[in-house]
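Quick board copy: two proteins, each given as sequence then tokens.
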Amino acid sequence: MTPLRCRKPEALTGSNERESAEEKDELGGVSGSAAREDGQEEKSERVQSSNQRSAAGVVQHLVRGLFGLLAAVACGTLYAVFLSAHHDRKFWFSARQELERELSFQGGSGLYYHFYKQMLAAPSFAEGFYQLLVDNGTVSGQTINSVERFFLYPELFLSFIYRVSGVQDYVEPVYFYIGAVLGLQAFCVTALFVCSWMMSGTWVAGVLTVSWYLVNRQDVSKVVQAVPLRDNWAVPYFSCQVAALTGFLITNMSSAAEMFCSLTMSISTFTFLLLWEHAHYVLFVQGLCLLLMDSLDLVPQKKTDHVQKIYLSSLVLVYLIHFQNSSLLSSPLLSLLIGFMLARYFQRRMKMGPFVARLLKLLLHLHLVFTCGITFSYSMKKLLPAAGSHLLLKLLEVKFGLKSTSDFVTNFLLCHDELQTPGQDLFLRLTQTSLLPFYILVLSICLLSTLQTVYRRLSGQPISSRVRLEDGRIGEQPAVIYHVFHSLAFGFLTLVFDGMKYLWTPYICMLTASGVCSPQLWMTVFKWLKLKSVHPVVLSLILSTAVPTIICFSLWREFYPRVLSELLDLQEFCEPDLVELINWIRSQAPAAAVFAGSPQLLGTIKLCSGSVVTSLPIFTDVDLLRRTEDSYQVYAMRSAEDVYKRLTAQKTSYVIIEESICNEVWTQHGCRVKDLLDISNRHVVHSEGEMFSLSKHGRFCQEIKMDYSPYTNYFTRVFWNRSYHVYKVNSVLSFQF
């Protein structure tokens, strides 16, 4: 028999398969959901841990920033306290009477303090301001706008603050004035601290900057010798502008920080131009550096355009506020801006093509910029003639040996210490403080790296927007490139003009400190050396901490005792002959008397007595310089009648002859006032190393002391001591034989 086999129906089989599939799907769904839940939990844990790390990083960043800001403010405050104590010990300032305090403003700088006193003595601020706008009591025979002519905005602002602040019963005007200037020096130090901090990434660089600044204080500022000078008011704002420009050029700055840097740069640029007549020349050098960076495509074009807008807007505002000063329209800064804009309009595809093509385009671009700029400057000088610009060109021609001149004003200015070539003692002092050797090291590394970057850009290689430490390319940072160019420009000018050291020395303090504290500087060197025995990143971090620590310790060990000894040393400051002269003028001279003499002495007389004078120690005003030349004729080999005519033309009542000038034995070669006058008047001739006199008259300042005719006909001696002889210019001539 055949066995019977039961076969399941297909419908039943299909239903069973579907049931098993559904069971598998349910099991799979349960396991999948569990896996997803586990993944979400892991993801949430990762997000939470990353948030914790970012929060910890933000807190750490805020703490570091807070400590850095506290260190910056502390360094600035301590420096201001040191300056105040040093100034008091140098001049015995707190123990002096008012007259002797005013005499401590040396070099004729007290003239600016006189206008501050005049503003406080006026019945109201508005009336005092009007008196300065229509000033007929300063220079004899002239009604001048003193605010425009002498850049008196600091005195205006400070006198207004002193009036409205209500501190008259607590602070004397002189202490309020000096405190404001010293406070600005603290602001300058703080700005350098922050700039060095931004470039290196550590506030240790700021501490090292301030340390170098302090030990090289003789070459960074003139504030101790002459507090009221214009550059003591203006240079701190330039330091702030440089710090803001540095932050603006840094590539990884946030938009809010970049906007803050732009606003700070605008305010400081405007203030710098408003306070100092030479500010546009300094900004011209800065503009040249930015022009070179833009031409080499080392900085984004939008940033250079933004800086140029700040320059232009600041120039326009200062031109309007400063009574339409025509010198700003013919300034080299404005000419550079005009030339740059025109060259960019005519040459729009300059930054494209192979290496040789881009190099030729670069040369053509620079040629167009300077051609357009010089053409614009020449046109403005023809439309708005400014004697000062012609004098500057003449000074440069004589300084660089392109021509010679017998003009007294030109040679007199070139004999000033600030326009002389610096001596070896400057570089010796910088070497003794270890600043110059480390500066050369930092500059060499940064310059070589910058040249590599320039070659890569001209070859068409892009610059990475974010430079890592491992790359070892410090020369790809726009801020570093700018400071390299600017430092070289200031250094070249310092080699020519000694006065530029007051801008260059603070600058190299900041740049050198930021370099030795930057790990990227050392990493760049290790990349060149292809160091493999030790991890270069670790070694660069170690050196960026160890090197500045060693430098700070050596500076503290060697110079800290010297700084303390200066504060403990009471220096002698006594000018009894000058005090006697001022007291005689106050008590014996008529209130309407007009005095002639050397510009530095006349500035002191104006400060202490308020008398009208024939000239002032303002060496940027050609008219005042020509009046100074006429007053100096008392030291020339001229007749009594000739000197009398020159003095009466300036409405002089009394002429003061200084023994230090009349009997000057030797200063710099050919820089005695007597020698300059003899050359200008053609009273001497040099032949085969010998000097021969061509004048038939003796030297006036020596002959008049003999008290014989015709000198007694024109002049009457009314006061004398060891240093000064005062002669009254006779209004009625009495001829005696």
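And the next:
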Amino acid sequence: MPVPWFLLSLALGRSPVVLSLERLVGPQDATHCSPGLSCHLWDSDILCLPGDIMPAPGPVLAPTHLQTELVLRCHKEADCDLCVRVAVHLAVHGHWEEPEDEEKFGGAADPGVEEPRNASLQAQVVLSFQAYPTARCVLLEVQVPAALVQFGQSVGSVVYDCFEAALGSEVRIWSYTQPRYEKELNLTQQLPALPWLNVSADGDNVHLVLNVSEEQHFGLSLYWNQVQGPPKPRWHKNLTGPQIITLNHTDLVPCLCIQVWPLEPDSVRTNICPFREDPRAHRNLWRAARLRLLTLQSWLLDAPCSLPAEAALCWRAPGGDPCQPLVPPLSWENVTVDVNSWEKLQLQECLWADSLGPLKDDVLLLETRGPQDNRSLCALEPSGCTSLPSKASTRAARLGEYLLQDLQSGQCLQLWDDDLGALWACPMDKYIHKRWALVWLACLLFAAALSLILLLKKDHAKEWLRLLKQDVRSGAAARSRAALLLYSADDSGFERLVGALASALCQLPLRVAVDLWSRRELSAQGPVAWFHAQRRQTLQEGGVVVLLFSPGAVALCSEWLQDGVSAPGAHGPHDAFRASLSCVLPDFLQGRAPGSYVGACFDRLLHPDAVPALFRTVPVFTLPSQLPDFLGALQQPRAARSGRLQERAEQVSRALQPALDSYFHPPGTPAPGRGVGPGAGDGT
């Protein structure tokens, strides 16, 4: 039904340009073209089937540019519909092939071959128009006289009047020829919206304000707009204006659209999608997204709207460790538990939770298939993928023979299967139970023997227990404490300074781990896996993790705290500090860091106040000025502070001083007290 003129004027404005929109009288479509061209419009719409691109047999007409213009199609003086006029600009593409006889012999070609070059060109141009809920395709026949055929030159345009569309709708237009010789042109345009339909926010809620007259009856529909397939309706109701409809912020998604229309025959429907760029809508979309396993070779990401994302398969060991990539990988296009968008981890799910049950201590076996039916098996562990069978000292290697037997006997569950390989889950419960049964049996035998000895020799037993207690205490004091040193590799000079500090600490009763001394393992395992294994071992043994802050480390920490991920950029393959932040931050955020972490920075390089506040929840020492306190924090928690602490601090300071001088005063620069210029004497 035509829209009253006063509504069109409200939507389009009162400017002279808008009020001078051309008016078309009558419902018939029409076409016209540039001078010299002839064009004809087919009587009825056609099917929208572009077809495949074909090679051009010679010069052809091709659409080069689409141009639109808003016009009014009026049934009466005051009742008009908004209409989109489309102009298709055409040019001559391609060329005639030279005859072989003329190329080889330089002679004149057959006069009959020249005749097509002097003929006119014809083309069938298709215009495809989409504006929810309608779609149309029309066919325009265009003929260009021979006098206008100039290769690569524009020959003019053909204009179609017109495609009707609703106010506020988004229209999409394509143009191509039949047959199709080139990629189709496309154009998207947003038409003006009616001012009586507004969206406003009130705290966590969203208001749809429909400011229409009290006697106006209209329909309101909420739906999810889909890139492929029909829209999914969510809510529909017939109302009488004016109305204010409240939506909860949790219902917002980017593809949520609103459709409004008067309850009259053949009324035009207005559509708007106001939440496409709303951050809350995008967060809700990922919260509603779910991964679902269909078969052993396919998966489905269920979400209200289309999602641009990348998927990858990873695995996680019990204990809340980060999900680690498969090495070697399976076909990542077909399976996922990690979904990333805009360089952020958005979704992580175990697709096989229904078949595996709760997370338990299973072993994942990765089967890779090569040419000529060659296959290999490895077991996924935090240190990497251990080949089976193997003589390594890992748990999977020790049980490799039993795991292979379980796989052959069908006791393992197949999780994935494709041309590249397969993934299996093999239970470990029975082996763990057997091992603990032997341990308990040995403990019982030892307790029985000890009880018998105590009964036979009470006095000797007391003396033996006293000596044993002293040995345990002295042994605990003598054992060195593990320390994991983390730093940001700002430059080669800073790395040498870190190496000097680590070497100096090794002279004390400390077992220092630093990536500088483990480059081979770091390259084989990857920074994340290497750090995770070192951190776990250090903390399990009651050690301490030392965060050595520098300007580069502070910048990386700030990026993680602001965005949740490290900013993309060039970094070395051994940058364990960048890789470690994903595991370090949870310890600080959940309050587990005190007692297990300490911080440090060099006096003239960084002030402690520059360290992010989150990391100052543990002690942060400046070196070398606070070396005694720093070394005291690295001691065992129950170790007594002895008079040797100051002596050890002086020892570390002496070992560290040459590296500090080299870093802060490189060769070729004046040393402190030996500068040049006014006031720099010779000391005599």
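Board note added afterward: The CA atoms of residues 91 and 154 lie 4 Å apart.
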